[in-house]
Amino acid sequence: MPKVLISDKMSSRAEAIFKERGLEVDVITGMRPEELKGCIGEYDGLAVRSSTQVNSEIITAAVNLKVIGRAGIGVDNIDVSAASTKGIVVMNTPFGNSITTAEHAIAMIFSLARDIPLANTSTHAGKWEKANFMGVELTAKTLGIIGCGNIGAIVADRALGLKMKVIAYDPYLSGERANDLGVEKVELDELFPRADFISLHTPMTDATRGIINAESFAKMKDGVRIINCARGGLIVEADLKVAIEMGKVVGAGIDVFEVEPARENILFGMDKVIVTPHLGASTDEAQVNVAMQVAEQISDYLLDSTVVNSINMPSVSAEDATKLAPYLKLAEQIGSFAGQVTETAIKKVQIEYCGQAADLNTKPLTAVVLKGLLTPLLESVNMVSARSIARERNIEISEVTCDVLDEYQTKITLTVTTEAQTRALSGTLFAGDKPRIVEIKGIAIDAELGPNMLYITNEDEPGFIGALGTTLGENNINIATFNLGRNKEGGDAIALIEIDGPISEGITDKVRGIPHVVRATSLSF
Predict the structure, then answer these.
(1) Which residue range forms the structural domain that includes residue 147?
(2) Which residue has the higher pLDDT, 357 or 319?
(3) To pair with 241 at 20 to 30 A between CA atoms, which of 5, 141, 294, 470?
């Protein structure tokens, strides 16, 4: 039978589940890297939390390892790339601590409303400063939730039970899902001035880093209270400190920090700031849940080849792997492209497989498209969980096949319907394995995607290309490839440009200011 190593402290239920399923299991915690490297070759599965560092050296030594399971969400301690190269499945347990984290946010809200930590310290000191701790009721107050996914939805449910009004900003939150949750969907600039409390529950991405900053605080009502139990770096800590000193923010509950462990921080010592050492997932129940889930997932994979919550692999048979490899790359690019240019809630997704693509096992391709589509604004999306996450958000998903193509032997078309528009994107394979984008919004184009791209929609007017080249040149942006398309002379046009490095938002803004530019978006692949 397969043999599994548990190398970090976790609930004993994990060991029990492995044994119940008939697997051999060793529990050896606190090993030094060289000790783990020396024994890892014996095992088919490895269960970890955050302490064990599964680096490339460990993975190289893991000659029999088939799966690594992380009891929790983050996989920063696992070299996923090295594991993928070696064919090792990496799994996490993204939903095991959702309730615990949500409850910690609610605890922060209560503590801020009634100054409980300061009042506790004062009373222990025998001061009896009752007049200094005048609180506020939560009833009828407005809670603004930024990020209304799994955890944010639980916070909303608890807040509604406290008779708070809940407004939520989440680009992927549909109107139907908002109605189901009982929250009002709003834009971010509307949330700031209306909320009495603001709680962050969004993942850390390029789009959300520093989402709460000096500009954000200026838009908020005086006396707002801020809670962050999501990710450090969502709030610019220096700007929060200034906002508290100015009285704009009357209290903040912070569980996560830009640098962790946070031995020192500019917010430490401020009376109006409640700080905890990343306790969002720290309850007995959550630790039992993630331990049980990781044991079940590893067992399912080793015994039945069932992949659940995989970070790095779709469900693909060995027979299909070779045929699907270039299509998986194309599917990822198409989904990621659409996800990076989507700005409003997604209502419907249709994926059409035509020609040779229609004869493939399209299930993993659809999973990869959805992963690429949802990843830009969501955390912990993988090829297995993408469909269930889409379903939670009331996104309708359909797959269509067609046998005959006039121009291409094979083609995948992704059509995304949002609250604002419908956009279609098509790709094919050239020379058997080279992904190319061949149509965007009904406009033909022929483009290979590089790591850094600039996507522009514009009016087809003379002078645009020259002005664009000048703007990029003046800002030291070198063009690698330049692809153009238009629907008719003087009509709608698109440009898809590969550049030699990432482009800042400031330079992108300059591109948007060029005459005839309708939209400009930087993309990364």
Answers:
(1) 98-275
(2) 357
(3) 141
